[in-house]
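If you are new to this repository, start here. Below is one unmodified record pulled from the training split, so you can see the exact layout before writing a loader.
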Amino acid sequence: MHKAGFVNIVGNPNVGKSTLMNQLVGERISIATFKAQTTRHRIMGIVNTEEMQIVFSDTPGVLKPNYKLQESMLAFSESALADADVLLYVTDVVENPERNKDFLEKVGRLTIPVLLLINKIDLTDQDGLVKVVEQWHTLLPKAEILPISAMNKFGVDILLNRIKQLLPDSPPYFDKDQLTDKPARFFVSEIIREKILLYYDKEIPYSVEVRVEQFKEEKDRIHISTVIYVERDSQKGIIIGHQGYALKKVSTEARKSLEKFFGKHIYLETFVKVDKDWRSSKRELDSFGYNPE
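And here is the target side for that same chain:
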């Protein structure tokens, strides 16, 4: 009998959801940086064997929305509660278990299996871990608790085996050679955004969106043209940098990662434009794919 199901990953910002997703899928599908709110979309990564298909879903960190983009991000996280066959709630040994209690209460009401993953266990000792496990057992008594270290791959195989046991009998939902539900253009914009997150400080990365204007694939190379949108002229100046140095650095780093990702030579053009409404306009957000419907 074939097994298949949706295994959705949720939790607060910066607890290691994207790192875990990439370890489980075995591919670099979610961008993972040390900054909060790195993941903005719900991203699927598909693991296939002959007798099984696991559709993993990485979601934005749960937060109280301050503007329309964050409302969309929260909607992606909440939609992951609605269609999961197995829910992975990721926390870590340092965050306050009481954070975002409203969301936690929704998790507690679910009737599907919930695996509570305590990540970053390398940052504590045995006594500290026991204390954290007890706190979480009180908050989510029905959840099965597994300590892991996603960065060090500790506990990831045990988790994968448990997921396989919990998967329902079902035919596959996607073609067996499919790795993700996202098109190639999506990964181009995510990789460029990742470099911006790593290279710029303060609010700049959160004020940025990347649109792929052209993606033209040839036999041994891909021509890509992108626009980096910011909200203010001052941000445009920071992104470009003195004599274009900052933008050139980001483009070079992005091109290297894209060549690795696609296995082809990449010709990458990047432009910067100001769009002061992109984070607060529903029409703009829809055009960037932030509609969780």
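Two things worth knowing about this chain: The longest strand covers residues 221-230. The longest helix spans residues 245-262.
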